Amino acid sequence: MKSATPFLMFQGQANEAIEQYKQWFPDLEVVSLAYMDNSQQVAMAVLHLKGLKLLVNDSAIQHEFTFTPSTSVFIECDSEEEINRFVAQMLEGGQALMPLNHYGFSKQFAWIQDRFGMSWQLSYD
């Protein structure tokens, strides 16, 4: 096996999602980004976030499915201010699957599905 990499398939929102994620995560690196011919649809992008490689694209085929909340990116935050900022940003157009709270397994935790349908677990110990 050469590699195993999470793959995020959007349906026309990949470019917008990448731009949003760059704002949320200033250290997000867009390693490569290619567009479909005569389009702003993402053919393939490679992102790096804190050692995590993500592949991102827009599907050329419309599907009856999208992201599921059970697959998520788990973010360990450095401070309460950071987790509060992420939660507030991700809730703009998104929804809290588990609102920011103390659930016993960390000081603060939230599970947010952003406006693109991508799920994020945010934890601060």
Main traits of this protein?
8 strands; single chain; alpha/beta; 2 domains; Signal recognition particle alu RNA binding heterodimer, srp9/1; globular; four-stranded mixed beta sheet; 125 residues
What does this structure look like?
This protein has 125 residues and is α/β, with parallel strands linked by helices. It folds into two domains: 7-58, Signal recognition particle alu RNA binding heterodimer, srp9/1, CATH 3.30.720.100; 72-124, Signal recognition particle alu RNA binding heterodimer, srp9/1 (2-Layer Sandwich), CATH 3.30.720.110. The protein is 18% helix and 40% strand. The protein contains two helices and eight strands. The strands form two sheets. Strands 1-4-3-2 form a four-stranded mixed β-sheet, with helices on one face.
